[in-house]
Amino acid sequence: MRPARTILIMQLSNSRVNFGTVLMMEVGALMVGRIENVPLRGRVKRGKEKGNFAFGGSTVILMTQKERVLPDPDIFMNSEKGIETRVKLGERIGVSEVLDG
User: Fold this and answer.
1) Residue of 24, 21, 22 lying closest to 5 (CA atoms)
2) Could you say which of 28, 41, 64, 82 is the most buried, measured as most Cβ atoms within 10 Å of its Cβ?
3) In contact, 26 and 60? CB cutoff 8 Å
4) How confident is the prediction along the chain (101 residues), in pLDDT tens digits per residue?
5) Which residues contact 33 (CB under 8 A, 6 or more apart)?
C-alpha cells in the first residue's frame, strides 16, 4: 500500500489579514486506506470540515509564500530539536500581516 497524498492550493484572506497563496498537502501515511475530502465550493469558514484520513497515521503540510506568514516560536524551537509539534483544530500556528483598515 502506497502513502496517499492530495494537494489543495488556496488564496486565504479576509478583511483583516491576507495570507496569500497557501498550498496544503495532506499525506496519509502507511496503512491509510484513503483521504476522504468533503466537496468544497466557493468560500469556506474557519473550522469547517475539509475531510479526514481513513485509518492510520497522517500529516498535513502547509506551504506559504515567502515572508507572508510567521510561524509561532514553539514550531521553530521544536523543529530545531527534531520534535513534532502537535496542532489541534482551530489552534493558532502563526501570524500574518494585519491589513490597514
Assistant:
1) 24
2) 28
3) yes
4) 566 778 989 888 888 888 889 998 988 766 656 677 777 777 777 777 777 766 666 778 889 998 888 889 999 999 999 888 888 878 888 888 766 55
5) 54, 55, 56
Q: Are strands 18-28 and 58-64 parallel, antiparallel or unpaired?
A: antiparallel
Closest listed residue to residue 51, CA positions, set 2, 4, 92: 4
Cell 502507511 belongs to which residue?
30
Beta-carbon neighbour count of residue 53 at 10 Å?
19
Query: What stretches of the chain show up as alpha helix (H) in DSSP?
Result: 73-80
CB of 11 within 8 A of CB of 21? yes
Retrieve residue 3's grid coordinates.
502513502
Comparing CA positions, the residue from 67, 60, 56 lying closest to residue 91 is 60
Q: Which amino acid is at 16?
A: R
